[in-house]
Amino acid sequence: MSPALETVLAKAGLNVTATEFLSYVEDATRKLAPPHPDPATYFSVDQREALLDVGLDLSSRYSREADPRARAVAAHAVLRDSALTVAEAAQRLGVDTSRIRHRIAAGRLVGWKDKGGWRLPAWQFAEHSALPGLDVVLEAVPSDQPPLVVAAFMTTPQEDLLVGDRPTTPRDWLLAGGDPQRVAELATMLGTPA
Questions:
Q1: Under 8 Å between Cβ of 82 and 14
Q2: Which Pfam families match (predicted)?
Q3: pTM of the model
């Protein structure tokens, strides 16, 4: 296995072997890759004509162009690797595993079913508790938003959330005692055109 990949994973603090990480990447690629990478073959003749009429380019990507899926696949693999199991989340919060499942069902924690059970993104946890104000934020997140989109939002600095004069992430804003309603207002916009 590549020593360079193992070094990158270690520097990133990811507790995963290079082989496991590459299997996550392969799995994410299958999930995120369109079934028809050539746009022209994905659509029917009538659909292609309509799209071409409005000026869309349906030509294949040039081989020298970077594949835009690569960043999403890597982010998905990191999200999956850093996620907690139900047992790990229960231990972190000092509760029984049934309480974690109840919080997932009630929308007070987010997660997804994976091989071996539920996975809960790490961004939603503080050291020994759930992120302060998390329930307010999660209630505002549109239900059609996938975990990767929510994770990106919660871990990306937002211009509307300033600590001092610097934009901060919604996660750090909440950890610093910021008003969860401000994050919730931003969260309602997930999935809408900018």
A1: yes
A2: HTH_17 (PF12728)
A3: 0.69
